[in-house]
Description:
mainly beta
Amino acid sequence: MLAVVKIAGQQFKVKAGDSLYVPHIEGKTGDSVEFAEVLMTDNNGTVAMGSDVNAVVKAEILSDLVQGDKVIAFKMKRRKGFRKKHGHRTHYTHIKVTAIA
């Protein structure tokens, strides 16, 4: 079974057993989480979309805080002496989809 689920404003295509990194969600390692906002399901060729979908994606948190790569935003105006450097590392949560019910 395949599902498209919306997690923290982003859409992910998942199936049971998948492991993925999602934007940081609250919880500790080993906690179980459910995502009720399922946009589409495909069960052996039977596709359900929109309001016809009544599925819940269940997942387990493998790692509660994973930092992404460092991103540097550097701004400069030539001949003006203006230089500005900002950087950040996005926080992710590593989850494993256990079931689509």
